[in-house]
Design brief:
homodimer, about 260 residues, alpha/beta, five-stranded parallel β-sheet, 11 strands, globular, disordered N terminus
């Protein structure tokens, strides 16, 4: 018996299984290493509220979403007749049609439309991942469909939490943990990433009462203070849609 | 009754109490914002193994520890007769007296001595915090003394996890959570920091079987693979010493 054999079962979780795809989690854009993901799918998670709003838009029939970083660019699109969703720190910009709440992206407003979208965090984050094989948007709203879709793609996965001003946040981490937990249970992925394992533990702690757990998140208080918290319960709802927003040629489109 | 009054008790944990000192946690040097800590004490946590080794050295009577970043600098000190502890990625450098295991810093070797210390992570991290009010070293080995000492100082506290190559790691986070939990229980601190709250949750999850929980940490496997894991159980031992390593004039000295 080779040395350490008795321990091998206990520790097998930490030995990477080379036959499986790699799963990693990044708690902040500031921790994202742009190189090394040319063969990976990056899942952007910004559940309060950009990634939830984007999933809602596609659920309600939006054709595509053009993410833009600069306010001036969003304004120019508006002058050309586009529907524009634009906010900074939770406040709707004056020229925009609406802001960042999923409740804005109703069927009557977005069905059949292309939306130009500019938020505090989200659009810069998408640009950060341009060298990845593919960038998709994840949230609780599309979580089961996302798991099925990722399993079909046969690629390494990196879960990228938007965080808040480059800081770790609880709500995106818990959602990353929920996705990671599902992916590992599919038996197609392996991980030796501490962030992924910690995110799963936080998810398992949060899952019996997700809204209760999210109460402690700083963003929960920020949205409450601005009276923007009406959509939080909705953002924590699993499986509102089967749509997977995927970046293709500079715009998000729905894959199924 | 003002609007929202019924909810105020439920949410009071997220309203910062301005009469209390602020407690924050940073999961990686890459997330550390050098500005804004001129009045804060930064606690550096690198439990496997630098901060545990440093605490052990002072427990065993070391007079001071000079952290140096560059190998050439460590070599120069060696040529001048200093005791030198130096490693890179767990390997002792050939000119050094010993490496990074706390078990090297025995009474007979370090008592009454000044040690020059250069590790993969630790020394660069200390330099990063130069603009803070004070930098101290934390680990499980000095945790209760650290809590008492911090409470006496009457300063905001930032817990800075060394992580691994700028990534989040489980072991430093759990130790930060343990320290944060003690500080909040002292009733002198308040936090609105998601990282602190998540670290505490991971600590509470880990604490019933800390060595078992740390099994999942990537650094646990790295040290095992290099046969450097003999000291891990020791590094997880609470309250081996009352000494608080504090940076003063370019060197760590023991405060009590």
């Amino acid at each position: 018996m080779p040395p350490g054999h008795q321990d091998s079962k206990k520790h097998q979780g930490r030995i990477p299984d080379m036959s499986k795809r790699k799963l990693e989690t990044c708690f902040s854009p500031a921790l994202f290493e742009a190189e090394g993901h040319a063969n990976s799918i990056v899942v952007i998670i910004d559940i309060l509220r950009a990634s939830s709003a984007i999933c809602t838009a596609f659920a309600n029939g939006a054709v595509s979403i053009i993410p833009v970083s600069e306010i001036a660019e969003a304004k120019e699109y508006k002058s050309k007749g586009y529907l524009v969703a634009a906010e900074r720190d939770g406040s709707v910009l004056d020229f925009a049609d609406f802001g960042n709440s999923p409740f804005n992206f109703t069927k009557d407003k977005v069905c059949g439309k292309t939306i130009v979208y500019s938020t505090t965090n989200g659009t810069g984050l998408i640009n950060l991942t341009l060298s990845a094989f593919m960038t998709v948007i994840g949230s609780f709203l599309n979580i089961a469909a996302l798991e099925r879709w990722l399993v079909k793609q046969d690629r390494d996965v990196l879960l990228l939490c938007a965080g808040w001003k480059n800081r770790f946040n609880i709500e995106d981490t818990v959602c990353a943990g929920a996705i990671a937990d599902m992916l590992l249970r599919s038996n197609c992925y392996t991980t030796i990433c501490d962030s992924t394992l910690a995110a799963i533990d936080l998810w398992l702690l949060a899952s019996p009462d997700l809204p209760g757990y999210i109460e402690k998140a700083a963003q929960r208080s920020r949205l409450r203070n601005k009276n923007l918290d009406d959509c939080i319960e909705f953002c924590l709802t699993p499986d509102f849609t089967d749509k997977i927003p995927v970046m293709k040629n500079g715009a998000l489109v729905a894959d199924i």
